[in-house]
Structures are given as C-alpha cells and as structure tokens.
Amino acid sequence: MLCICLGICAAPIRAQTLAPLNVEPNTSVDRTFGPATLTISVRRKTAQVLIGVRLQNRAVMERSLTPSQNTMKVDAVEGDVRIRGDLVGTLRYPDQQSILSGSFTVTQAGRAIPFRGDLAIWTWSSPLVFESQTVWLTPELSAVTDLLYDQRQTAQVRLITVGQAITTLSLAQGVNDAVVTQGFQIGTVTIDPGLSLHLQPATPLQTGAVYLTGGFSSSDHQGVRYSGAIATRPYVAPPPEVPDQ
User: Which entry of 101, 123, 172, 241 is 20 to 30 Å from 224 by CA?
Assistant: First the structure.
C-alpha cells in the first residue's frame, strides 16, 4: 500500500538587502533592524569607525574598527532580543571608498530578522592618521609622530614645546631619512644641530618604527642625548583594491 503524506513547508527566511548609506566623515548614521539599531560613526582625521549597538533603545556594545582591527563579533542580549553575527570594515586609503559590511541576525520572541550586505560607505580625505604617538625628550619638549594611513607609510614628526611646534619633518618609504643641520632655541628649550630621523617600514617580518637621534636641553635638563624609537607601527596588509564598476 502506498501512503502519501501531505504537509506544508515553511518558506526559508531571506536575509534583508538594503542599500548602504553614504556617510560623511565626522558624522554618524543609524541602521535599524526591528528592535536593534547600529550607530556608525566615521572619524574625520583618523582611520577609525566607531560602532554602537542598541537593543530596545539600550546601549549594549561599542567597538572601534581600525585598519589593524577591522572585524567585530556582535553577540548581545537585552530582554527577549538578541543580535548575533559579524561586522567587517574594508578600510581603504584616502580618496578610495571604504565599506562597512555585516552578516548578523536579530531575533525577538522567535522571530528572526537576518541581514547580510553592506551597511555604510564613505571616502576619507588625506592626510589620514593611522595612529599618533608621543615621546617626551625632556619635561618641556615632546616628539609627536603622526603615522599616516597611506601606501608609503608616511610619518610626520613634530617637535613641540608649550603647545608650539618648533619644526615638522616628514618621512616615507623612499625618503626614509632626514637630518636637521640647524639648531633651535625656543625659550628654555634647545635642540642641537644635527638631529636625525630614520623610518623603518613595517613589513610582514618586522614592526615599523621611527628612530630619532639628537641632543636637547631644557630648564633643569641640560645636555640630554636621545637615541631610539619615538613611534612604532604594526604591519597592516594593504586594503583590497576598489573593484571595477
């Protein structure tokens, strides 16, 4: 005897597809998925995107995406609401389009809202700072190094006293060394002639660094000699190229 059983199969839930929002750097946008909201804030001068997650209008997570840490695991619960999945930032160099993508599911009381796709796009302008680091050469003199996010690993070094930049020097791959033949005296701060800088690019086999060698003096610190790194940077693989349209 042949038995035929008839049943009704539930249709699979399809992931939402939404067009990405164009975000101007230094502004924020919200993307809402039922009881969940993602706030996306793109910094203007630094290669950084701040992601905030709210469930039922309550903040539950906040993370910062950078070129060296460009992924975010999302897993949060508030009452009967849960969001779980991943966010990925494709953070490109200035004048190229960057993208924040997501693959996650929001559930509430057994109802699922899946999403997979691009959430936001933006384009940074140059110069864009990857990281800024400060070393005090004397109590009155600091070396501030802006490590730029670009193809040449540019480093801009400012020697600063009481908020005033005495001199600024730039290094990059292909222009790895700089020597300042003149000296400077600003108030009680003196920089001896012959200060030198060297850029060691970051590679998969070595950490990048900016090295400084020079002599300095200030009020209570005469004849200070500094020779060493004033900034370091990890190797970050170049971002993928923008696909042809």
Answer: 172
d(CA 211, CA 25): 32
pTM of the model: 0.88
Q: Which of 10, 20, 41 is nearest to 116 (CA)?
A: 20
φ, ψ dihedrals at 221, nearest 5°? -135, 95
Across the chain, the runs of DSSP E, i.e. the strands, are 21-22, 27-33, 36-42, 49-55, 58-65, 71-78, 81-90, 97-108, 111-123, 129-138, 141-148, 155-161, 164-171, 177-180, 184-186, 189-191, 195-200, 208-218, 221-233
Report which residue type is found at 222.
Q
Q: CA 199 to CA 169: how far, in whole Å? A: 11
Cα(216)–Cα(48) distance, rounded to whole angstroms?
Answer: 35
User: What is the tens place of the pLDDT at every residue in 138-191?
Assistant: 999 999 999 999 999 999 999 999 989 999 999 999 999 999 999 999 999 999
